[in-house]
Batch of 2 targets.
Target 1
Amino acid sequence: MSQSSKDSTPHDIPPEVNPNRTDDLWALTKEGYIIAEEIACQTEYISEQSCPNCGHTPLRTMAQINRAFQGLNELVTRCTNCHETYGFIFDISNAVYQAWWAERMGVMYTRLYDGAPRQVDPNQRYFR
Ligand SMILES: [Zn+2]
């Protein structure tokens, strides 16, 4: 696993960004979920999407559905042009996310999802 090429020293990275992002960021799991490695990358991902219906950018996040007990986080978005809604489901069961979260939470950390971490689907590795 290689790290992101982002040229930052750790103290410049905001707390919602994982300094240990990997190339698996935003890859898809076999279940079709988007790999998230911390909180910030999810809104970053949304900001790069355009509406499949009308092609408009940006999509606005309307709601967050906490599915941590499933190792998932869902963001519901709406196109600001045609008002179509889209849901994006992020995988937070992966080891990179959980290690980052555990480090942030310290003794408060509890793992809500007790299944095995989901793996990147190598066949959907280069989805962008
Ligand atoms: Zn649209």
Target 2
Amino acid sequence: MLCELCGRETKNLTKVLVEGTTMDVCEGCVAYGKIITEPIKKNTPVKTAPRRYKEKDIFERMDTALVPNWAERIKNNREKKGLTREQLGAAIGQRTIIISHLENGELHPTDEMARKIEQELDIILLEKIIPAGQTTNTTKGGKRTIGDLLNHETNQP
Ligand SMILES: [Zn+2]
């Protein structure tokens, strides 16, 4: 077996991560990469730096939507917390009239407003929506994952 990094013949190859790529290297080259402890199996999510980046990317592209009964939730939970509309408004930096409109469902809160209210009242107002076709993300356009590359390699004769 040959070390993929220095090309030397070696008996013991160690899988390491070198700049986002998995490589089988000899003992002398292990220090150049990060040792991957778990053996990589087919279709197993690989915990690597590029993968983490991808997940973050997906997360940022996810849309949020208000829960159906958001107005009710705001009102009920504000009252449960014993807060007046003035107090809630002050807490999230909005005027009392805005809170009234929100609770009547006349005004839709911005994402920012909704998040502040969520924190203030310990409730959920925004739900994450995963866009359709998101699961095919790794195959179209951008780079393939290391898992894809490995699968490809192992499928070859
Ligand atoms: Zn080597």
